[in-house]
What does this fold into?
Amino acid sequence: MPTVAEVLAEGLVHHRAGRWPEARRIYRRVLAFDHAQPDALHLLGALELEAGQIDLAAAFLGQAVAAVPDNAAAQANLGRALRRRGDADGATLALKRSLALMPAVTDVWIALGFGGLVPGFVRALALDPMSVDALNNLATHRQQGGDAAAASRLLRRALAVQPDGSGLWQNLGLVVRGQGALMGAVVAFGRSLALAPHSATVLEALGWTLHLAGDAPRAAEAFRRTLRVDPDRADVHASLILTLNCLSDVGPEEILAEQRAWDARFARALGGTPASTAKDPERRLRVGYIAVEGFRAHTAAVTLLPLIEGHDRDVVEIVCYSDVPPARADNVTRRFRELADGWRDCRDLDDAALAARIRDDRIDVVADMYGYPPGSRLLALARRPAPVQVNLLPMGSFGLDAVPWMVGDARLTPPGSESWFSETVVPLPLAFCYWPLRPVPEIAPGPLSRGGPAVFGSFNQPAKLSDRSLALWGRILSALPGSRLVLKGMAFADPPTRDAFLRRAAAAGLDPGRVDALAWIADGSHHLAVYGDIDIALDPTPYAGVITTCEAMSLGVPVVTRAGDRLLGRYGATLLNAVGLGDLVAESDDAYVATAVALARDSARLAQLRSTLGRGFSESPICDATSYARSVEEAYRRMWRSWCASA
It folds into this structure.
């Protein structure tokens, strides 16, 4: 008859070979004979830990160490089980007991590091300088602590040991992307995908890196590949929708089809019923605003803050639903809190909980100012928490059945654009308001007025700078000897990324020798001062500027725009017409080139605009917060009356 040790040895053979059911039966047979047999308890606990049955594992391992407290391996496995169960203190105690018994076990020190004790990783490396797990995990902690350079060094050491580590290449890509080395990140993600081509995580990271680098077509393809691997990623599908707006060969109807597909797959089935509210068409309305991180110095705040400032509190009561983390709150956040009748910190609420909160607040009209970017709350609106739900700062359609309303204006959403949207568009005199969040500086006269050749500029993010835009700008510079183009974007801080962009510009017909690609300037006043180095701003196509157009005009720099075939290509048209510069809106590519060239040759007009446009902009309807607020309130009332009449 075999001994207990021989039976357990047989079980261990099955265990190590991955035949867990056989191993489990053998371990339990031993325990049926002796329920306190410590080796069987330990081995069964270790098996259940591998199988992901964490509570079972912790129970068996706890019995094993109670029977034999000086079993270092059992203490270590108990520590791992408790950590995965969320018992950090218990895990740390068990791991330290294991190390007191066997202090030179690298894996246990690594497990201790996972518990938040970074010296565990350091000690593991002292024991085994070639430990890939220790190098990789210490790199993660260094990155989280803000030391990206140290993280990069550690990961490169790990890759020297294990060059075929897909996860190591992925982590290196994330680290160097955080350092701004976008092309380095693209290379690292490519190495990772060569080893694990179906990693949705790496494909998504590659997509966003390419987007940041200005290569929107390849970014869109990376997002599509991600969805082929993992079609349930609502966030990745949203990223694809955002990127499609940058592509000249994708029209608004195709973008709407993607939005409707997003709604069908992720949102439509969520449903829900708004809280019961009094259907009085003329009563004061409770209005909720969703802007995610827009309740701080953010592009959404330049419209939302003046709107809330301008609201008539006899007509509306305001509740703000903010996802701004405390560390990112600023003076703009404080101003929103002062103005709001109700303030809700929602960063820790998931979409279902946010919808419940809106419903509990008995909101009549909820307006989303954010849409599809990362952090989107559209899946909260999909649960229909309010009777009236509106796309208020339109960057295109939402495509959601649950959001049937959108605002627009005659130029942003012109007649014939109905096929671009799933929403009913309620027209405003102007569907945008701008309020600078920082003082507008005085800037120097333009280069032309100082006797130099014309200098054009576009300070839009590189993803907007399509090949079509680059080709048009090449034609403009070719018509004006000596003229130059100044671009500015975060991606251009990385020389390989800047060089790759300039090669793309050359392929599109824009002489890179006449282009200054500047890094983004974090300091707001310094950023705006660069407008003093250009005479004319050029709007990209098909995705036009919005805030950049307003900034340029507020400083006396005129903008030439190409009215596009989608809402995001038409903000330039609506803004320029609002300040009386409709002649700078071109309806064709040839007209765009001709308009820019003619303006560059009209030095008298440029000088006049430099001295008057800033004041004219600040006095224009774009900056009339009171009128904008009244028009929005009237739109809400129209939507509300429609809802009251529908029941």
